[in-house]
Every structure is written in C-alpha cells, then in structure tokens.
Amino acid sequence: MTQRPPLKAIEAALGFLPDHAEQMLTELWLPLAESLAGRSHPWIQGFVGLQGTGKSTLCRVLEVLLTTMGIGVARLSLDDLYLPYKARQRLQQLDPRLRWRGVPGTHEVALGRSLMGQFRARAVPLFLPRFDKSCHGGAGDRVEAELCPGAEVLLFEGWCVGMMPIPDLADYLPLPPIMTAEDCTFALDMNRALGAYVPLWQELDALTVLAPQDLSWSKQWRREAEAPGGMGLGELDAFVDYFWRAVPPQVHFPRLWQGRQGSIPIDWWVELARNRSPIQITKFLI
C-alpha cells in the first residue's frame, strides 16, 4: 500500500512509523494538527498521560504535521524542567523519599512559567532547556538549551501536566499502591507539593488527555518499553508504583473527566485500547 504523504514525512522525521499510523493519522493526528493550526497564536497546548501512552510521540508527530502546514512549533517536556543534578542530590538529602526524579518538587516550576511567558511575548531568541536522562549513570542532568525560533505553537507534555491538588485526597486513602501509613503521608505531601505547579498549568491554553481504558496498562507498557539489561520486573513495578503513590491516577483522571480540575480547558480526550489505538476520541469546544 502506498503511504500517504503525511505518513512519509512522519516516518522520515521520527525514523519509524508509529503503530496504527493510518488510523491515528485520520482520527487524531491530522484533526488535532488542523485544530492547533487554526488557533490564535501564540498557543500553548498541554498533553497529559501516564507512562507509555505516547505523549512524546504524539508531540513529535504534531510537530511534523504543523511544520508542513507552515506553523512554527516548539516542544517542551515536563522532564526538561527537572532540577539540575546537583540540586536534586541536595533535595534527596533533605527528603530521602524523593529517590526518583519526576514527582512534584523535583522540577523548576518558575523556569517553566518564565519560558511560557517569553513564548507568549514572542521573545527572540527563545531557548528551551533540555534534559539528558543518560547523564550521571542514569540520574540525568540538564544539557545545552535548544534554540526554538519562530514558534507559534508550544507543545508541553508530561505525566501529571494539568493535574491539580485534591483537597479531599485523604478520603480516598488507602488506595493501592498507597497502603501503609508512610505511603499515605507521602501521597498527601506530594498532593500539597502539586499546588506549586498550578500557576504553571494555568499558562496552558488547552489540555489533551491520553487515557488508557484500563490504567494498569500503563505499567505493562512500561515493562514492554524497558530495554534489555534495564530494570527487572520487581524494580520496574516499584518505579511505576512510586509515581502512582505521588499522584494517584485512579483519583486524578476521573477528576479530569468530571471537569473538577480547575480552570484548564480540556479540548481532546483520547481513550486508548490495550494496543494504544484510540477507542474513542471526544473533542470539546473551547
């Protein structure tokens, strides 16, 4: 079968063609790209989804499609806002529970707000931070910032982007994997720490949600993505559970759907099947 021109451009840019590309192109990628192209610019689009849902791939695909439409694009991940290595080392000494990067408190939120303010002001030049997870034996560190000239759309993705503190979180606990008293204390502390991220989330013009029909599939996808010689299953499950203890998706995703997450408008809700193909795509007018 002859590939459609957009698929050729996507494969050339990414070096591979994502699974279910024809379906995704028709049902999600092109409609979302066309929607973003038609927005008033500058525009900041957020993307949230658990590990393995394809946030980064989606943003890379949108960058390709929007570029072919003549729209300048910049990509920023929540990961790019991690505190530098030495700062995270000091943070871990203060709170040993912060053994892995990624949970609330391990990012430089003020930097993110500053960058988004510069983007809206069309500041030139705009340099976006980049984070290399391979530095320091896998602990990761910031590397040279990337110049992003002429961007009209900023794509900002992360596993907890747009998620707000939940005032009544204690009423849901214990909740697997938040089972012990220590787990509950950690979850409540992280819930409070999430409050510092609200001003950053409020910089978004809209939020796209990638939601697996079964949240547990995220853990399976993370297993499938682990390279040979990487984490063992036990360590990998502990790694994923760590994030679920910090920001429990069983509570946050229903809140997102119910519209109880604050003032950030959701424009696309994409429900994913086990094979990551879309089961249902709901578009909201904003």
CATH superfamily: P-loop containing nucleotide triphosphate hydrolases
- CA radius of gyration: 19 Å
Provide the CATH architecture. Answer: 3-Layer(aba) Sandwich
Gap between N and C termini: 38 Å
Q: Average pLDDT across residues? A: 91
Question: What string gives the helices and strands in order?
Answer: HHEHEHHEEEHHEHHHEE
Low-confidence stretches: none
| Beta strands, count | 8
The total number of structural domains is 1
Which shape, going by the Cα principal axes? globular
Strand order of the largest sheet: 2-5-1-6-7-8
In helices, the fraction of residues equals 25-40%
Q: What class do helices, strands and sheet pairing give?
A: alpha/beta
- Please work out how many helical segments DSSP would assign: 10
What is the CATH topology descriptor?
Rossmann fold
The biggest sheet amounts to: 6 strands, mixed
Question: Roughly what fraction of the amino acids lie in strands?
Answer: 15-25%
> Which CATH class applies here?
Alpha Beta
